[in-house]
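Box 3.1 — From sequence to structure: Peptide ABC transporter ATPase
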Amino acid sequence: MAQNTEEIIKVENLTKVFGSGKKAVKAVNNINFSIKKGEIVSLVGQSGSGKTTVTRLILRLLKETEGKIIFEGKDVTDIKGKEKKEYWKKVQAIFQDPYASFNIFSPVKKVLLDTFKLFNSSYSKKEKEKLICETLESVNLRPEEVVDKYPFELSGGQRQRIMIARAHLIRPQLLLADEPTSMIDANLRSGILELLLSLRDTDDCTIMFVTHDLGLAYYVSDRIFIMHEGEIVEEGSADKIITAPEHPYTIQLIKDVPKLSEEWLTS
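Predicted structure (token representation):
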């Protein structure tokens, strides 16, 4: 894939403080990074490092304390109302717990149809159903086997694939994948990672993959950002981070790579 030099998103001096006074916690501390169109970039760090807070800030689900976010050359820091809804058409997310992300009283078909309703889609009913079928097939699910089922009737891997399908349904330009494999069986994780790679390669979707597992990040990423205690302490190409780490925290993360991921690193 040809290297694209055009930035899709840029984060400048981003800081998020929760609480105030003696109880203040600086979850994100003056971070800066950019992602190019068509890249898969991983944000890697242990629990509590600030990764999910960064994701929620980019999604505009949280208000930053300082700094700004530039998307496609436009400052989106203060967007509201219709502007935010338009932004969400272009920036979608999948989270680590697929079960918690669904209305358990709605079958899959309604969950996906409601996505169109949320974003005021102009598609006809027939067009929506066709797009749903195509999108489910793109994540290796047979529509006839899942559309009438409820979330509790599906496996963890199926629910996560439907989460990806729902995010992909409106063809976002940037997908934020926050620990999408952490709550599914190890033997299903590679399939989810292959799906993310496919979205990038077939639809030119830019992806920010958020994970605690450096091995998984290496498997899918063009570049990796290492996050520790609210700061990005190291960044570089996936190969550079693995073969020539500089920060002590990065070195420790490499030592902690699970055996499953080690197989990918040495293959």
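Summary of the box: Residues 7-256 form a domain with the Rossmann fold fold (CATH 3.40.50.300).
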